[in-house]
Amino acid sequence: MNQLIFALVVTLGLTVQLADSLMFHLQPNTKKCLREEIHKDVLVSGDFEIGEVHGQTVDLAVIDSKGGFLWKKDHAEKGRFTFTTDEYEVYEICFTSRIPHGQSGFAQEVYLSTKHGVEAKSYEGLDEAAKLKPLEVELKRLEDLSESIVKDFGFMKQREEEMRDTNESTNSRVLYFSIFSMLCLLGLATWQVLYLRQFFKSKKLIE
């Protein structure tokens, strides 16, 4: 029975493990940035590996929308970066290729794999540190994942409320503007009628 539960937990764990992985070619003396919106207080980790080309170097930096560096490494080759977001905004992971002046360059192959939240958290050694069994470690990971999902739903609910308030405010403004426009048109039509009536009377076309 315990083996069945363990297998089920492991299957669920493998199912919910998600990571964003990509590979691209970075041209010499160019800069390529990858953007992503991330919630507040989210742990982010990334593994990168850059193909080696003699004489060429690549700088790696993680930048927030204000231009601040969350992580930076010059002459990056292979490794991992981690950071925790301070607020909800767009973050950029930028690769900048540099070659000496006068040297011909070659495209470098760049591999990047990023993980967020529970997927970025390392559970290795947790069983020894907290004296937990493998099944308990998986349950702990799934518990953290459940909390993350609840937070995501809470964030979605908050955004839905903000969008609903914005829609209601926009509808109210459109309604007031429509009423104002109708009153202006009605006033203009009344003035035109009175003006034409006065004009025709002055020309003695009507009494």
Automatic annotation (TrEMBL):
Entry's family note: Belongs to the EMP24/GP25L family.
Protein name: GOLD domain-containing protein
Span of the signal peptide: 1-21
Record-level GO cellular component terms: membrane
InterPro entries associated with the record: Emp24-like (IPR015720), GOLD_dom (IPR009038)
Membrane topology of this protein: Single-pass type I membrane protein
GOLD domain residues: 31-141
Species assigned in the record: Allacma fusca
Subcellular location: Membrane
Lineage, top ranks: Eukaryota, Metazoa, Ecdysozoa, Arthropoda, Hexapoda
Highest rank taxon of the organism: Eukaryota
Segments traversing the membrane: 174-196
Keywords: Developmental protein, Membrane, Signal, Transmembrane, Transmembrane helix
PROSITE patterns cross-referenced by the UniProt entry: GOLD
